[in-house]
Amino acid sequence: MELTEKELHEFKLRLLKLQSDLIKAAETGEQAEEVVELDQTRVGRLSRMDAMQAQAMSIETGRRRRLHLVEIEKALERIEAGDYGECLDCGEIIQPGRLDAKPTATLCIACAEALE
Ligand SMILES: [Zn+2]
After folding, report:
1. Average pLDDT over residues 65-87
2. According to the model, what pLDDT value does residue 35 have?
3. Ligand 1 centroid vs 29 CA: distance in angstroms?
4. How far is the CA of 110 from the centre of ligand 1 (A)?
């Protein structure tokens, strides 16, 4: 079953909300990374290692966040183009429950499972 205009609009709003949350989180996260830099001048060796671990984690979080933002942008582009909700692999309609759980999904369940 194809998505209705109303459903598409709801997905668009959800994606825009996710996008703005991620951008906000990115701004906060970048501040946290800077704090680690400053702390290194005055903390001991062990806590410096902790700080470096925390920094590595926040860099990893930032990397995932950027990937997620790209997925959201692509999903928004697909909504504009009118092919949102179609599997990129087989062209079938992606199950609504799957899109609901993951609005950036680009593959139907069968194709996603085939990839794993
Ligand atoms: Zn498929």
Report:
1. 96
2. 59
3. 35
4. 6
DSSP string of 62-101, one letter each residue: HHHHHHHHHHHHHHHHHHHHT-TTB-TTT-PBPPHHHHHH
Question: Measured in whole angstroms, how far is the alpha carbon of residue 102 from the centre of its chain?
Answer: 10
Give the Å distances, CA to CA, from 43 to 48, 50, 55: 6, 10, 14
Residue for token pair 């920094």: 55
Is this model's pTM higher than 0.85 or not? no
The 10 Å Cβ neighbour count of residue 84 is 22
pLDDT score, position 28: 83
Give residue 104 CA to ligand 1 midpoint distance, Å. 14
CA 51 to ligand 1 center in whole angstroms: 43
Within 13 Å of residue 68, how many CA atoms lie on the same side as its CB? 19
Average pLDDT, the chain: 88
How remote is the CA of residue 79 from the centroid of ligand 1, in Å? Answer: 18
Helices (H) and strands (E) in the chain, counts: 4, 0
Task: Measure 109 CA to ligand 1 centroid, in angstroms.
Answer: 7
